[in-house]
Amino acid sequence: MQSTLSAVDVSTSTESSTTAVSWGPIIAGALAASTLTFILMLVGSGLGLSMVSPWSGSGASVTTFAVSTAIWLVIVQWLSSGVGGYLAGRLRTKWVGIHTDEVYFRDTAHGFLAWALATLLVVGVLGSALSAAVGSGVQAASTVASGAAIGASANAGGAAADNATSYLADSLLRPADPSKLAAAGPDGDAVAVGQASRILVASAAAGEISADDKTYLSQLVVARTGLSEADAKARVDALVAKVQDAKVKAQQAADTARKASATFALLGALSLVIGAFIASAAAALGGRQRDDEEAVFLTSR
User: Fold this and answer.
1) Is the predicted pLDDT of residue 207 greater than 80, yes or no?
2) What does DSSP assign to residue 93?
3) What is the pLDDT of residue 166?
4) At a CB cut-off of 8 Å and minimum separation 6, what does 97 contact?
5) φ/ψ (deg, to 5) at 278
6) Half-sphere exposure of 17 toward its Cβ, with a 13 Å CA cutoff?
7) Does position 293 have pLDDT exceeding 70, yes or no?
8) Is 301 helix (H, G, I), strand (E, B) or coil?
9) What is the 3-class SS of 124-169, one letter each residue?
10) 138/110 Cα distance (integer angstroms)
């Protein structure tokens, strides 16, 4: 019984009254990491803008842009987390009477906390500045990736929604002889162009053109151009094929953008995991070097 009390007294007397978390080094490391992150993101934004060209086929694709941006995020996390974690471990005070394994764990935890605080600072405080810095580059990349196909599809979809009622009214009031529209002068021409436009918009939204609409378009072409019925049908078929091709290109561009966004999100999450690991390892390295340097200094004295 006496030996048990003695063991309790000894363990109680050797328990440190100070906290195991040194917030000063953690905050210092987090500030250093967030500042370096901001600088490197500005550098990456400049490099990313050089990859984007407004000319078709001259710049990087959206997939290449997303992957390269995600890789740069990994590099940013690697460098900034390493610096922040190392400072968090190197600047802390020496823990006396603590087992080596416990010291290693505390240093690792300090590096992780410095990384977590730096991440919150970057997202919360520097988020708007970073968005302004890289927003133009991302917008330019999206424009280059989508091209005219997405614009044509978006305009077609919007026009289809706005003019659905007009298209139905046109279907109801179409003249039996479209040549009468051509004979009506400028007003008839405007009506014919409007009807043709609404038919094409509705067909693009539906994904196909009905036989009645195709026949009416052919009749309009014959009435306005004087072409033969066969030539008019060939012109209508060519135009419909162009509309469908634009829609397919828009869908392909949207699918490419979706895949690029998913790749960017996954690699971005991976960069954060790498940053946490690097910060923890760097803090353990910095803490060990700090203790080793102090031990050498005390020995030399």
Assistant:
1) no
2) P
3) 60
4) 14, 16
5) -65, -45
6) 1
7) yes
8) coil
9) HCCHHHHHHHHHHHHHHHHHHHHHHHHHHHHHHHHHHHHCHHHHHH
10) 34
Q: Which of 129, 108, 136, 134 is nearest to 21 (CA)?
A: 108
| Distance from the first to the final alpha carbon of the chain | 45
Q: Assess whether pLDDT exceeds 80 at residue 252.
A: yes
Nearest Cα to 80, choosing from 124, 129, 122, 134? 122
Q: Is 259 helix (H, G, I), strand (E, B) or coil?
A: helix
Residue 187 has pLDDT above 90, yes or no: no
- Which residue, chain included where needed, has tokens 């939204």? 205
Residue 151: the pLDDT is 45
230-241 confidence digits (pLDDT tens): 888 888 888 778
Q: What is the dihedral sign for C-alpha 286, 287, 288, 292?
A: positive
Q: What is the chain's mean pLDDT, rounded?
A: 74
Backbone angles phi, psi at 102, to 5 degrees: -70, -40
Residue where the block lists tokens 């060519």: 238
As a 3-state breakdown, the chain gives helix, strand, coil percent values, each rounded to 5, of: 85, 0, 15
CB 274 within 8 A of CB 79: no
**Nearest-10 crossing angle of helices 186-206, 164-173:** 120
Percent of the chain with pLDDT over 90: 20
| Surface-to-core class of residue 117, CB atoms within 10 Å of its CB (0-12 exposed, 13-18 middle, 19+ buried) | buried
